[in-house]
Amino acid sequence: MTERRLALVTGGAQGIGYACAEALTEDNARVILVDINEDGVMAAAEKLGNGTVGLTCDMGDPQQILAMFDKVEKEQGNVEVLVNNAGIAKPGEFLSYDLNDFERVIDINLKGVFVATQRAAKTMVDKNIAGSIINMSSINAVVAIPAIPAYCASKGGVMQLTKVASLALAQHNIRVNAVGPGSIDTAMMAGVNANPQAMDMVMSRTPLKRVGSVREIGDVVAFLASDKASYITGETIYVDGGRIGMNYTC
Length: 250
Prior knowledge:
seven-stranded parallel sheet; 8 helices
């Protein structure tokens, strides 16, 4: 029987992260869920079962990230699939946007992705692991919303970081890709869901005329992690109901 791959999913306590873990588990991966929410990540790991491990880590703190990988390698083995999903938004008015909020979003959404990718890749190279790294970008890497400047900037950075890492790591047979969700039914979209006018606006720029599910993101992540995507690297796949293809942004 083929040994189960070890997959690590950040921001895995709920929403898209948990859906990614669920899909990877169904593809016979051993999963480690990482989240800043200790109670949430432990409950999620227990719910998922199949030997899933829950760990606490602030993905905006490089030292915590490095320590977390050390712990994983010591106790669970080498990560073969990394899903950099943890992220925050922190909306605000552009002209009065708080610099501390901007830095916190960048620390988690972009710097944390770099630190985790670099750390995981070092072991993959050292152990000759043909790994797969999947970053969570967004349609907001391409189209912008003025109320979330830091988020848009961070996701644009993730898109470019994905390309850079894919080129740097291709010689080691490590693939790096990203997924760019559109309007997905998550806690982050709860306010939009509760506002009919806001939802009408979202639907007006979504050709499929519905909100996506977290599992639809998870399934694409599982595909990118699998051998079915063995010749795909450096790409961002937008799972957005056709949103990117439209020729207007608001």
